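Bench log, entry 3. Co-assembly request; chain sequences pasted below exactly as received.
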Amino acid sequence: MPIYHYAPAQLPCKLCGNGFDHHQSASATALRTCPTCGKSVTRSAIENLNTPKLLRPLSVSDAKNLGFTVFKKTSAGEFERQ
Ligand SMILES: [Zn+2]
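Structure output for the full assembly:
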C-alpha cells in the first residue's frame, strides 16, 4: 500500500506542521482535509518506496562494466585513467 504525504495549503500548520503521511490504497479517495486541524490538504505520493535500493556502493569494476571511465587520484590535483 503506498504512503501519501498530505501537506496543508498553508505551511507550516500550527497543529500538523508540514503535514502528515498516510497509508492508503492507490484507489482510495484522497483526503481533502487535515484530520488534525481541518484545513484543506494536498496529496503527493512518496516516490522512494518504489526506488530500488542500492545494496552496496558502486565499485570501480562495476563502473567500468557500465561504461564509465574511471579516474584514480594519484597525487594532489592529478588523476590517472584506470
Ligand atoms: Zn493541519
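The pocket of zinc ion is lined by residues 8, 13, 15-16, 34, 36-37, 39 (CB under 6 Å). Residues 3-49+56-81 form one domain.
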